[in-house]
Design brief:
Elements lengths: L18 H18 L8 H7 L33 H21 L10 H30 L2 H12 E6 L6 E2 L5 E6 L2 E5 L7 H12 L3 H13 L5 E7 L1 H8 L6 E5 L2 E4 L5 H4 L1 E2 L5 E3 H5 L1 H5 L3 E6 L12 E4 L6 E4 L3 H17 L4 E8 L5 E9 L5 E2 L4 H4 L1 E2 L6 H10 L8 E4 L2 E4 L2 E4 L7 E4 H6 L3 H8 L4 H10 L28 H4 L8 E2 H12 L3 E3 L4 E5 L5 E3 L5 E3 L3 H17 L13 E8 L16 E9 L6 E8 L10 H19 L26
Parallel strand pairs: 2-12
Antiparallel strand pairs: 1-10, 2-3, 3-7, 4-5, 4-6, 8-9, 10-11, 12-23, 13-14, 13-28, 14-15, 16-21, 17-20, 18-19, 22-25, 23-24, 26-27, 27-28
Helix pairs in contact: 6-7, 12-21, 14-16, 14-17, 14-20
Length: 696
């Protein structure tokens, strides 16, 4: 009889009585071993669960074995060997990561099926991630399509720097093509503080090459460190070689560009030519008046730079080429200008004057050959930077007698031979008028009145015409109005309407008081006599030359008739006698016939009076004439402002006439002016001689 055998593992048997006790005993034993330092033997999983109070897991019953088939009992497989410590740590980290995810997204659970809450959380997480991804994709697409051009432009702008390329300013030439003012090559150093890496070191390096003093070096370092702007000047208009030495250092944020400097080749013409500022803009004189013509059009240099402020090779380009300015060709003659300036300066020093002006012009065309200006500064030195001949007006004194007498003759009121009984002193409207020298009442023809420069004789002559007529003639001569030069800050002088002449002005205007004139107005007015009675406006510019080299001539000066030719000839003859026998004898030029008139004006004092020789009277001495008198070619004015009042050389005939003689002789040689064959020198006998008489 076959007996069925059932094999049951002792681990799956029900615990026997006393098991708890055995467990307690085992625990005690384990603790004892632990305290004794003896390693506790490895427990099975069931024993460990039993130790922690977990319910033992029953073993599955062995599979049913058919009767007659012997049951094979498989031996228990051995425990896997202990792995290396490093591999154990890797597994531990993986478990920790998984545990973290479970704690965050899924509450710890021992079930394999996700609960509805877990699924909901997963859906939310996925939705958030997908939304974020869609947003990022949309943003990138927007930046690349809608705003792409803007961002690309902004990025390019951050790398680009634009530098102005100064156009070469036009040159200024004299009538013979000689340079008076020109531009010379210079370089300007600049820095971009936002690109400078080491402000102190950069300033030190630049200062060493530029020879900056410590103060300037520190100022540069402070500016570079402030980073308040992306551009600052380091040094302007310096020698190109020195600029290259700095740029060769390749300092981050430091560069250079061309910036021409202006040079006056002939300093004697400074008052006329004027000057420019550092930016090349005209600030005075012709440089200011013709700035638009001379300046040209600036260009732009656009460069792409790296993070250190250095130009990226191959990326820089000139966007707009500069267009050079036009050249000016003046009526000035450099040789005459220089000589006139020297002669005037010498005379101003000799007579201890405050200053002086002088003008040389072509009698027929109005072209100004030279215009000199001298002014003593507070430190005793002299300057020629201001064009006082055009901007300052003075009461002319006796030179004005030419215009009032000419008006009376031209109106037919008198002739050169008309005789007046001229007293030596007379009272008009509570004001006493005297001639320059005391004399009893004398019979004087008009020509003698002019030759001896009689104040009272001129008043009597001018009274033959109305004040309104006299005023109109003065305007015709050019007084009270600016000349056609349109020189910057040019003065129109002072000439009130005749109806506003009050008191003694009704008579003093005839001999040079009560109206004021610039030297430029006065020489142009006197030139009416030299030019056969026709006024010709003064002119300073002959032509312009464009950047292609083509010359464009300036229109001739405007003209207008003032006197008849007969009147002009009569005045010419009388003015010759002024030089031969009258107050202008020191203006004579050997071998040349000269016609002219002296003038000595008193300057108004701060108290509104003219003062006296005992109270510090100030003089304005002048001489205006032309040569050769038979066929005038040049008209010349010389004025001396405030000569020494205690000197005999305080009058027009003594202070200014000698300069006229010197410069007149030089101009005649320079321009090859020869007197006509019919020239008649002054007669030996003086037909106007009277004992003890002299004028000014």
């Amino acid at each position: 009889m076959t007996v069925r055998q059932h094999t049951t593992s002792s681990r799956g048997a029900q615990p026997r009585k006393g098991a708890a006790r055995s467990t307690s005993t085992a625990t005690s034993t384990s603790r004892a071993r632990s305290h004794a330092g003896v390693a506790e033997p490895r427990r099975s999983g069931t024993q460990q669960r039993a130790r922690h109070g977990a319910r033992p897991v029953a073993r599955k019953p062995a599979p049913h074995t058919p009767r007659g088939v012997p049951q094979v009992k498989h031996p228990r497989s051995r425990q896997a060997p202990v792995r290396s410590r490093a591999r154990g740590k890797s597994r531990s980290r993986k478990k920790s990561t998984v545990g973290f995810v479970r704690r965050v997204l899924i509450r710890p659970s021992r079930t394999k099926q996700a609960t509805p809450i877990i699924k909901k959380r997963l859906r939310w997480a996925v939705a958030v991630l997908v939304s974020l991804l869609i947003f990022l994709i949309g943003k990138v697409g927007y930046l690349q399509t809608v705003s792409g051009d803007d961002y690309r432009a902004a990025g390019l702008a951050a790398r680009m720097r634009t530098t102005t390329l100064r156009a070469e300013r036009g040159a200024i030439f004299d009538r013979n093509g000689r340079e008076i003012a020109m531009s010379v090559p210079k370089m300007t150093l600049y820095a971009d503080p936002t690109m400078v890496v080491d402000p102190t070191g950069t300033a030190r390096a630049i200062a060493g090459l530029m020879q900056f003093d410590p103060v300037r070096e520190q100022e540069l370092a402070t500016t570079l460190a402030a980073r308040e702007s992306s551009f600052t000047f380091v040094a302007r208009q310096i020698d190109p070689a020195r600029a290259k030495a700095v740029t060769d250092l390749r300092l981050p944020g430091v560069g250079a560009y061309k910036e021409p400097d202006r040079m006056i080749v002939d300093p004697s013409a400074l008052a006329v030519v004027g000057g420019t500022d550092t930016d090349g803009i005209g600030t005075a004189g012709l440089e200011m008046q013709y700035n638009d013509t001379l300046a040209g059009k600036d260009g732009r240099f656009v460069r792409e730079q790296d993070k250190d402020g250095r130009s990226i090779p191959g990326a820089s380009n000139v966007e707009v080429e500069p267009v050079p300015g036009n050249d000016l060709v003046l009526t000035l003659d450099r040789s005459i200008q220089f000589q006139l300036n020297q002669a005037l300066l010498s005379r101003v020093r000799q007579v201890g004057a405050r200053g002086g002006t002088a003008v040389v012009m072509n009698s027929k065309t109005g072209d100004v050959y030279a215009m000199a200006n001298i002014r003593r500064k507070e430190d005793g030195t002299y300057s020629n930077s201001g064009n006082y001949a055009a901007v300052e007006a003075h009461e002319t004194g006796s030179t004005a007698k030419v215009f009032s007498i000419a008006a009376a003759i031209n109106e037919g009121a008198v002739t050169p031979d008309s005789v007046f009984h001229v007293p030596g002193i007379q009272k008009f409207d509570e004001y006493v008028i005297r001639d320059a020298y005391p004399h009893p009442t004398q019979a004087m023809p008009v020509r003698e009145i002019l030759v001896k420069s009689s104040n009272l004789g001129t008043v009597l002559t001018a009274q033959r015409i109305s004040t309104t007529t006299l005023e109109s003639y003065l305007h015709a001569f050019g007084f009270g109005d600016k000349t056609a030069l349109e020189f910057p800050n040019e003065s129109a002088g002072i000439l009130k309407p005749a109806e506003k002449w009050q008191g003694t002005e009704k008579i003093t205007v005839a001999y040079g008081y009560g109206f004021a004139s610039t030297s430029l107005q006065l020489v142009s007015a006197m030139n009416v006599v030299a030019n056969n009675g026709t006024y010709v406006a003064p002119r300073l510019v002959l032509a312009t030359i464009d950047d292609a080299g083509k010359m464009h001539n300036v229109a001739p000066s405007a003209t207008r008739p003032v006197l008849t030719q007969e009147t002009a000839t009569q005045m010419n003859l009388m003015m010759r006698d002024v030089v031969c026998f009258g107050t202008g004898t020191l203006a004579k030029i050997p071998g040349m016939t000269v016609a002219g008139k002296t003038g000595t004006g008193y300057k108004v004092q701060n108290d509104g009076t003219y003062g006296s020789d005992t109270t510090g009277r100030k003089y304005f001495a002048s001489f205006v004439g032309f040569l050769p008198a038979e066929d005038p070619q040049v008209t010349i004015l010389v004025s001396i402002d405030e000569p020494d009042a205690g000197s005999r050389d305080r009058f027009g005939g003594t202070a200014a006439a000698p300069v006229f003689s010197d410069i007149g002789a030089f101009v005649a040689r320079e321009l090859r002016i020869k007197p006509p064959a019919t020239t008649q020198p002054c007669a030996k006998a003086d037909p106007y001689a009277r004992a003890g008489e002299s004028g000014h």
